Amino acid sequence: MPSNETIRRHAPASGDRSSGPAARRGLTAVMCACVVLVVGMVAAINLAVPPLAASGLHPSASALIWIVDTYVVVFACLVIPGGAAGDRFGRKGVLLAGLALFAAGALVSAVAPDVPLLLAGRAVTGVGAAAVLPNTLAVLLHAVPAERKGATIATWASMTGIGGVVGNVGGGAVLSGGSWRWLFAAAVPIALLLAALAARAAPVSPRHDRRLDPLGAALLVAASVALLLGIVQGPEEGWGSPLVVAGFACSAGLFTVWTLVGLRAEHPLLDPRLLRVPALRSACLGMVAVFFGMFALFYVNASFLQYGKGFGVLRTGLGIIPLTVPMVLAARRVGHLARRIGLDATLALAFACVGGGLLGLSTSDARTPYAAYAGWLLVTGVGVTLALPTLSGAIAGALPPAQAGVGAGLQATTREFGSALGVAVIGTVLTARFSAALPADIRAGGHPHTVAQALATAPPDRAHDVVAAFVSGADAGLRVIGVSVLVLGGLVVLQSLLSGRGDRRTGRPGVRR
Q1: CB 364 within 8 A of CB 376
Q2: Are 205 and 95 in contact (CB under 8 A)?
Q3: What gap in Å lies between CA 33 and CA 27, rounded to an integer?
Q4: What's the pLDDT score for residue 206?
């Protein structure tokens, strides 16, 4: 018979403040605001790249990529452990701790006197975000009645898309009024306010004795960082340098060890055997590909509009909005289209639009009218709108209902990992092409790898040559990303066809029982 302490530990708290409809609406608003905050930071930091490059920190090209990616890769690798920690130690408590860590990391980033401390702050913020995201959904699902769970999940999921828009627009508004440090400083009071609201509104949910698998989480983080290290440092160190070769070798070894540990663990957080399911494997690859393309675009778009088009940061933040128009207007119709033309045709159209839109954007230069640029953003947005609900449904449908939490964790991990990989790859291609495209006399003035470094060494009347070299690098990066998305999308659709996944007439993914 369980002890009284066990009953108290696992029973829901009495006097639940979220029992009434008004209280539930308030709780939903707070949880959604938390999602917008942690996801918005992924997008907002890209707007700060030009002012960071010109700042007194004097970051290298690779350091700029790490400033963006450190948050994303820690977020990606710890989001499943963050959900497991909430199950074991209490979702409300872990959520509040995550918001506190997010605020602390943002504060460290805001006052950082050098790049290493800024990276440390970004890592702490990523740990906080990983604790926040999964537990917002868990808190909501505990608080709402069964008949409202579907609508609640849909509302929560839409916030991940809205977060990117808010990050761009809100980040642009903050950066237009001051230094890049204001972006991080503004996040501190917002996170603390949300923590206070969540402490008041969120109910205490039952705890479960779910294992945390810290070894698996540490191996996944280390393997991912080693992979990005090889990609990011290649242009500066040389692709055959000991650091780059060691990064790729360590990544391969650590991913292998992570797989072996997961296969031997009784309760791994992310069971590698799940990827033996063709439907799940292809859907996860598709999710990585979409976010690979989308966040590579975010990284380049912010700098292209500021350097190439001369936009201010606020106008730059607003400049990405055409990408989001299809998400707002057409997301609810994607299911109907998939049922009408089939799952495979929907995915093929989605990847064609994402990859084709990125290739179209790669033809832009400083003289391209913004209307033409916005048109290609719109095409890319149509592809993203078609892909995300279709792939999300495929991941959920490839797993039995009992593993719904695993599916949600997989979606979050693949999204953030694709984002980190996209930023790393396009930043690497951009840096290499930018350095090669600079005129020889400017290149000889110190081998600059960023626009800020090149402008500091070039005569004032040669600034247009520096900008032209940057645009050439951005176009090359977008071409690489666009082709990569088309190739990866082709693999996803081909595997779907070969595995016979889903009902071709209804577009429903097959479900493992």
Answers
A1: yes
A2: no
A3: 10
A4: 73
* Residue reference for tokens 């996170």: 191
Q: With helix as H, strand as E and coil as C, how does 394-451 read?
A: HHHHCCCHHHHHHHHHHHHHHHHHHHHHHHHHHHHHHHHHHHHHCCHHHHCCCCCCCH
Tokens of 147: 């008949």
Q: What is the pLDDT of residues 33-52, one digit of tens each?
A: 999 999 999 889 989 999 99
Token pair belonging to 236: 């500066």
Q: Of 347, 195, 372, give the one whose Cα is nearest residue 283.
A: 347
**HSE-up of residue 81 (Cα within 13 Å, Cβ side):** 20
Q: Which residues contact 213 (CB under 8 A, 6 or more apart)?
A: 81, 84, 265, 267, 268, 269
CA distance 322 to 379: 9
**Which range, of 9-13, 68-72, 74-78, 316-320, averages the lowest pLDDT?**
9-13
CB 169 within 8 A of CB 324: no
> What is the CA angle 70-106-101, rounded to 5?
90
Query: In this structure, what is the dihedral angle of CA atoms 346, 350, 351, 354, given to the nearest 10 degrees?
Result: 170
**CA gap 52, 318 in Å, rounded:** 20
Tokens representing residue 217 in the block: 């989480």
Q: Give CA–CA dist 387/102, Å, rounded.
A: 30
pLDDT (tens digit, 9 = 90+) per residue, 386-414? 998 888 888 877 777 656 556 767 778 88
Tell me the C-alpha distance between 21 and 175, whole Å: 38
Q: Which of 132, 140, 135 is nearest to 74 (CA)?
A: 132
Q: What is the pLDDT of residues 412-424, one digit of tens each?
A: 888 888 888 899 8
CA nearest neighbour of 157 among 40, 32, 250: 32
- Return the ∠ at Cα 406 (arms to 391 and 131), rounded to 5°: 105
Selected residue with higher pLDDT from 151 and 113: 113
Would you say the C-alpha torsion 351, 353, 358, 362 has a positive or negative sign? positive
Q: Angle between the 149-175 and 21-47 helix axes, to the nearest 10 degrees? A: 40
Closest CA to 318 of 180, 173, 471, 478: 173
- Is the distance from CB of 239 to CB of 431 less than 8 angstroms? no
